[in-house]
Automatic annotation (TrEMBL):
UniProt KW keywords: Membrane, Transmembrane, Transmembrane helix
Transmembrane segments: 6-25, 45-63
All residue ranges annotated as the HIG1 domain in the record: 1-66
Protein's UniProt name: Twin transmembrane helix small protein
NCBIfam families (alphabetical): twin_helix
InterPro entries: Hypoxia_induced_domain (IPR007667)
Pfam families in the record: HIG_1_N
Source organism superkingdom: Bacteria
Length: 66
């Protein structure tokens, strides 16, 4: 059961990264005030979320290997 919950948590983390990435790309494509105010913030959040997702993936692989 713990293995399945870790899988779902990892999948959720990947979806969060994807959503942040799409928001950033959409803001960049549209330009304007939203992009000027939020481009760097979105990039920072994406990097943090991506690091969490990779750490969860590594933990999931480690748990499944045991």
């Amino acid at each position: 059961m713990q293995d399945n919950s870790m899988f779902y948590l990892t999948a959720l983390a990947v979806l969060v990264v994807f959503a942040i990435l799409l928001t950033g790309i959409g803001g960049f494509a549209k330009g304007g005030e939203f992009n000027r105010r939020n481009a760097n913030r979105l990039m920072r959040w994406r990097i943090i979320a991506q690091a969490v997702a990779v750490a969860l993936m590594m933990l999931l692989l480690w748990l499944r290997g045991r």
